[in-house]
Design a protein that fits this description.
Elements (H helix, E strand, L loop, with lengths): L3 H34 L5 H7 L4 H6 L19 H5 L2 E4 L19 H10 L7 H8 L5 E5 L12 E6 L2 E7 L4 H17 L2 E7 L10 H20 L4 E4 L11 E3 L2 E3 L4 H21 L2 E4 L9 H11 L4 E3 L11 H9 L6 E7 L7 H10 L5 E7 L4 H15 L2
Parallel strand pairs: 1-2, 1-12, 2-5, 5-6, 6-9, 9-10, 11-12
Antiparallel strand pairs: 3-4, 7-8
Helix pairs in contact: 8-9, 9-10, 10-11, 11-12, 12-13
């Protein structure tokens, strides 16, 4: 018969053998699982993937209140590398641009002084102006209203009203306009810079209930997408339109409900889906900026982008285009994950003390790699203002 001591020794030996086998199994499998998933998932999902639920964790005595693993602090790029992420903004210095003259309407004295100081520009001059004024900046954000040669009326739409003809937006479809776009493309190429974005106000009524107006807006957007391709642009803003003031909710069944906004959203989704499909053919992304109308609310932008569900429809956030101060940073946090091409850094008279460092920190935290256009609108000298804003953004970038 086996003695008591021998029996205990056999039991201990058996337990040790089983324990060693279990440890080898878990060591091999858990190491593979850890290396494969640790970088991509959080602690909670890791435990789930290993088959350990919340009850199991508590049962084996593991702590569940551990701090999340901190992200490795990124190494700050050189100033030269950070400048390459920035884009000059033609709208910010639009006072310098040649404009149509009208009888009885003279230029403002401050505009005259600015043109004396910096010279008068057309968009054909803007690549060289960017190169001379913002050293190190290699990209440009072009405003649609500055396209065309104002001495050639054939480049512009005509509006007949009360027996008078008024000239409207640049029309990319005319022969003279196409020659102009080729000339602009040559100027951009010879400067060594690139036009990366068009901030476009020409396509209108994109969410309008009037189907004829909405279809016209889409038609104009497609013409501009073709124009963008001609000059090498890869993204173009189209405004959502919609009511200037978002309709208010009304009480239905004791609770607020807003059915009035739904048709506008539906129309915007259909319009942006069609424009994104066309943008895919031209290689130009259609972007939505928080630029009033439906887009005054970042959630509406998110709804449209998610419903369109195309890599050619994305957000292009603006730091300051908000209705109130609490949107300044929180609205940006909502939009920046949906942006890949363009973001407008802005200092504006409505929010002259906007915290640029905090805004850029939102971009850094989101690992935003797209272009940042510096759009100064806070009064005074726009060239000095853009230079200060440019430097503030560069210093805050990583």
């Amino acid at each position: 018969m086996i003695g008591r001591r021998d029996l205990i020794s056999c039991l201990i030996f058996s337990v040790l053998i089983v324990t060693l086998k279990i440890m080898r199994f878990y060591k091999k499998n858990m190491k593979q699982n850890f290396e494969k998933h640790h970088a991509a998932i959080g602690r909670r999902n890791f435990l789930k993937s290993a088959g350990i639920g919340a009850i199991g964790v508590a049962g084996i005595g593991l702590l569940t209140s551990a701090e999340p693993i901190s992200k490795k602090k990124p190494v700050k790029r050189t100033r030269e590398e950070r400048l390459k992420q920035l884009a000059s903004n033609s709208y910010a210095v639009n006072q310098l641009f040649k404009s149509r003259s009208f009888p009885g309407r003279e230029e403002r004295p401050e505009t005259v002084q600015l043109k004396k100081k910096y010279g008068e520009l057309t968009l054909l001059d803007f690549p060289q102006f960017t190169k001379d004024t913002y050293p190190g900046v290699k990209a440009m954000d072009l405003w649609s209203s500055l396209f065309g040669d104002i001495s050639d009326d054939s480049m512009f739409t005509k509006i007949e009203r009360e027996g008078r003809t008024r000239f409207g937006d640049f029309d990319p479809s005319t022969l003279s306009s196409k020659r102009y776009l080729d000339q602009l493309a040559d100027k951009i190429a010879s400067s060594g810079l690139k036009a990366v974005h068009i901030s476009n106000n020409a396509p209108r009524n994109i969410a309008d209930p009037n189907e004829e107006l909405r279809r016209e807006g889409i038609r104009v957007a497609k013409l501009w997408l073709d124009a963008a391709k001609t000059i090498g642009v890869k993204s173009m803003r189209v405004n959502t339109g919609g009511p200037q003031i978002i309709p208010a909710s009304v009480i239905q069944g004791g609770y607020p409900q807003n059915m009035e906004i739904v048709p506008y959203l539906k129309n915007a989704i259909e319009s942006f889906r069609e424009m994104a499909d066309y943008g895919e053919k031209t290689g130009v992304r259609v972007t939505i900026e928080n630029h009033w109308g439906l887009a005054a609310n970042p959630i509406n932008i998110r709804i449209i982008i998610n419903e369109v569900n195309s890599p050619y429809c994305e957000a292009s956030p603006d730091f300051c285009n908000w209705e109130h101060e609490y949107m300044l940073y929180h609205g940006l946090e909502v939009l920046i994950p949906m942006a890949k091409s363009m973001c407008h850094a802005k200092r504006w008279t409505r929010f002259p003390d906007v915290d640029i460092n905090r805004c850029v920190r939102v971009l850094n935290d989101a690992d935003y790699k797209g272009y940042i256009s510096f759009e100064y609108e806070a009064g005074g000298d726009p060239v000095e203002g853009t230079l200060k804003l440019m430097n503030d953004v560069v210093e805050a970038l990583v």
